[in-house]
Write a structure and sequence with these properties.
It is built from 6 helices and no strands. The chain has helices spanning about 10-20, 30-40, 40-50, 65-70, 80-85, 95-110. The protein is mainly α.
């Protein structure tokens, strides 16, 4: 697969995060935000939970640099606003913060997403 500058793979990464939450894994908000700032959240989560991942995020298929940059762009905006902007209440819900930011990308781009016409 050709690596480009798109957010391709972000939805799959989000599904992996949902799987981690489903099996009881947690990350603190502070730890997640620290890795947003370091621009390595994809590698941090993937390497820490690799045995639980179904998709490979080792920089071979998806452009992790672009995915990390997406989260980095929120790093100065989020601290102190986790609850009011994203509904994240608990310090151990850092993984849910990742999901919220992915959904934010979807919301901002939803105007460009069209459903296929149904066959009648």
């Amino acid at each position: 697969m050709d690596i480009d500058n798109s957010l391709k793979g972000m939805g799959l990464f989000c599904m992996e995060i949902l799987h981690l939450v489903s099996i009881g894994k947690t990350e603190t908000i502070d730890e997640v935000e620290k890795h947003f700032e370091k621009q390595d959240i994809i590698e941090y989560i993937y390497n820490k939970y690799k045995p639980h991942f179904f998709i490979n995020f080792d920089c071979g298929v998806y452009n992790n640099k672009v995915l990390n940059e997406y989260f980095y762009n929120y790093s100065s905006y989020i601290p102190g606003r986790e609850q009011s902007k994203y509904g994240i209440e608990n310090e151990n819900d850092g993984l849910l913060l990742i999901v919220s930011l992915v959904m934010d990308a979807f919301e901002h781009n939803a105007i460009y997403i069209k459903l296929p016409e149904a066959d009648v």
